[in-house]
Design brief:
two-stranded antiparallel sheet; 50% helix; elongated; alpha+beta; binds zinc ion
Length: 80
């Protein structure tokens, strides 16, 4: 499974490219960028929906919380 963080970063970069595009940009390339953004958005949302929430106790602040995920998918504290 692709790390959720990496998917969301890719979606963000492609979205930024779309938002910053100009009518003078090559429309063939922009069509590919838009298609990639649409595909990765669907994959990212589907993967997030299938990923169970992880509750863990943070070794740093000792809070128990629903964890965010690190690049490799491991849980990280949302507060630290
Ligand atoms: Zn913490």
């Amino acid at each position: 499974m692709i790390a959720q963080y990496a998917l969301e970063e890719a979606v963000g970069h492609l979205g930024a490219a779309i938002m910053q595009s100009l009518p003078s940009d090559d429309q063939i390339i922009m069509d590919h960028v838009k298609a990639a953004h649409a595909i990765l958005t669907v994959v990212s949302r589907a993967q997030r929906a299938m990923t169970p929430a992880v509750t863990f106790r943070c070794p740093i602040c000792a809070e128990t919380a629903v964890a965010d995920r690190d690049l490799d998918g491991s849980p990280i504290c949302p507060k630290c």
